[in-house]
Amino acid sequence: MTPGVDAPSRTRRRPVREHAPARDRRGAPARPRPAGGRIPRDRVGYAAPGTGRPVQPPRSPLAPRIGDPRRRHAATTIACLLILAVFVIRLVDVQIIHAGPLAQQALDLRLVTTTVTPPRADIVDRNGVVLATSVDRYHLAVNQPKLATWKRVENGTVLAEGPLDAARILAPILGMSESELAAKLVGDKKYAYVVKNITPEMRATIKAEGITGLEFEPTSERIYPNGAIGGNIIGFMGGREDKPGIWGLAGVEMAYEDLLMGEPGSTTYEKSRYGTVIPTGVKSDTPAVPGTEIQLTIDRDIQYQAQAILDKHLRNTGARQGVVVVSDAKTGEILALADSYSVDPNNPGATPAHNRGSHAVSDVFEPGSTAKVITMAAALEEGVATPESRYVAPYQYTTENNQTFRDSHEHADQKLTLAGILVSSSNTGTIQVGQQLSDEVRYDYMRAFGLGEPTGVGLPGESAGILHPWEKWDGRTKYATMYGQGVSATALQTAQVYQIIANGGVRVQPTVIKSFIGPDGTVTEPERSEPQRVISEDTAKQLMLMLESVTQEGTGRLARIDGYRVAGKTGTAQAADGQGGLTSIVSSFVGIAPADDPRIVVTVILYDPKSSIWGGDVAAPVFQEVATFALQSLRVPPSGSTETMYPTTWE
Description:
This protein is elongated. It is built from 21 helices and 25 strands. The N and C termini lie far apart (about 210 Å). By secondary structure, the chain is of the alpha+beta class. Helix 5 (about 160-175) crosses helix 6, helix 13 packs across helix 16 and helix 14 (about 420-425) packs across helix 19.
């Protein structure tokens, strides 16, 4: 190699050759591949021949470039921020802006308010004997789904489970058949009544069985320890069509409903979704106000004897019904108000509806001869007669307007004093006495003695009786009213007439309510009308002697009581029979004892007696037995010396 001359390079250059285009297995030209690998046909299409570049599909200028990771990340971030903002706004709204109302609304949905009914107050007699009271009772209910899961396991052995075994255990306790009880225990109800008004003792026995799913709802039941004694006065409880619940439907139970029931309270508590009380939740109580105890003027023992004696004499006389009223001569308090077939408040449905109230205050009748005493009182008070005034009483008497009246028995003309007319109960003699007074004056006395208006005794359904204004009396009625016809009264109004005479001529309002005893023990007496003087004390004394002669020598001899002076009057009158006729008979006797110091007035009314129609025969013996017991029960001392009676005849 010559120096200075560049030596040739040892690297040999390969000649440049033109490569043949790539072909596939079939010999066709192959598509060019990008440096990264295969070309997705669904995105870029086929390569352009001879270029080695993929053909791009046409792009819309509005289409997003989703293939760009940065843009996709930004969109996701913005979406998350928007969602977070919505939650933040809602959270602020719930927790701050509307927090109070929403919390209250949620609390309201969880709160439950139940009414707390106070026990109904007692009704007692004048001596504190309980006549009506409320006792604790429970309604047994079942949560059927919960009972279905119940099991009784002992030492790993299942002894009982589910509603069928529960029915087997409970049936003897409840006195029900297993099939009947099982039908009430099986189901999907969360609260269903099984039996109502079970006793506390029965509740304790059931709870001792440990059966889950059973619930006890406290309630109370009204009971009447003395059964039918005074049932016509006390009344009874039952349902009403106009409002739910149990209410008084008769007697004192109905008349004093608001006082007896008191004022209901309430309990508000927070419950869970399962219906259970939340121990730490809201709880508030409004105490119930107990009712007011009502003390009656009725004496339970006298009431019992009056009913028993009345029932006995109804059987003996064949009368269809009767009434006995025993009242205090001085105060007007009713000691007994006995009706035949008195209702048992424990089972009012066993008594026909027409016998569930008191006939003594609702039924009216023509009092007959017992009302003659009003004519006598008016004549004495107005000074037109004295007890010894003389009259001639024929069997038949014709008035100036040609109205003819007769006595009950045919007889010759009788020379009778005013006292004698009352003792012999002469209609013709009474008309002659009444003719000495104007119709208006007699009407005023009848009103003053309490006819034609309710007494206000304190019982529902009281009738005012029937007393037409004197201006409307026809030519016969004006005379008939003199001896107790043409006017209608209740047994209680009849008793009030004689109570006025026994009380020295002063009228006091009859009542069956002695006092109201509040929950705090406060005793309040009922409001009563002011006493009113009807006749003078002298007139009342004269009438008492005349009435005493009735039992000594007149029609009321069977009313006499050993050791006591008795005054009284018999009565027999026709009454409407409900068919438009006057075939029904009312026999009566009203007596006062002791006559020298009156303590009681006893009124006896018998309807349609069969053994005799005369009050002296059938009603006076009832008076004698009832009055004897009442005087002994009240420890009334025997009468003192007798007085000289007025003459009954003259010569």
